[in-house]
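Table S2 (continued). Query chain:
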Amino acid sequence: MVKRLGIVLLCLLILSTAVFVSCSKDKGTETAAKTETKAAAGEEPLKLVLLVKSLGNGFFEACADGGKEAAKELGNVESIYMGPSSSTAEGQIEIIETLIAQKVDGIAISANDRDALIPVTKKAMKAGIQVISFDSGISSGGRTIDLVPSESELIGRQQVQLIAELCNYKGKVGIVSATSQATNQNLWIEWMYKEIEKPEYKNMSIVEVVYGDDAADKSYREAVGLMQKYPDLAGIISPTTIGVLASAKAIEDEGKKGVVQLTGLGLPSEMQHYIENGTCGQMALWNPIDLGYTSTYILEALCTGKTAGKPGDVIKAGRMGDITVGEDGLTIMGAPFVFNKDNIAKFAAMF
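Corresponding output:
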């Protein structure tokens, strides 16, 4: 009897243990499944930051609109727009330090200085944050991908071609640039000098490059200074949205409309008046909405492991199609578009 009772108790013990193990296993499986489902659902959106040169710039505000458009399409992305109050590397460094502490997922930066940001962006990447540059690049080692709106050669040469057409291929030309450290501006200007060496520009010359530091008041003063220093100035090139707008106002205020021609890179919404009244005969610009849009798609692809950003990698970027990563991470979005009286109103309504 005692022996039989012992056998029954043993069976009950084995059964209860099996049930416990089974329940534990089921519970563990359920927990794992919940974790996978949560990961798949992406309850925590990726925090992707567009860090621009400075706030209050219409070009970069349009970039922000493109970032939000891409974030909406991608679904599990929060696009955050940030920038310092003035165009300085120090202001951007301070913001990046804050973003590292906040543990954002990715940062796309339009750099105020090609090299000064490298130590802090390396720190960000070491902390697991994906870093790319766009519009104005960071040197290799400080980012994974550098998205350039167009090829520097094409932009620089095109600016000379546009002013030459307006000046009938003769006369002195001045350049109102952004900051002296702006990587994109400096590259474009190098190509302007190379383009103007061609025989068709034998009656033209670039007399001086001045810097408005991407500030409206300083750019205005520099444009006025050029016209006063060179009374026979034929044209001004300003490859910066703030600079070209300030230069247009300076030309009008100095009574030089039709005498000093103007071209550059400008926002249609800001330059519509000056193009329609002939102060600026024509100008060019890539679509900044597309720039913010493409940057956000690239960051999302890096953060989710869709790409490692290696040369030859192809990134699907929504309506912008396939973007191919080039050597050293250099990636080209597209070519600048020329705005004139015929099309300015249409694009001014967009950005």
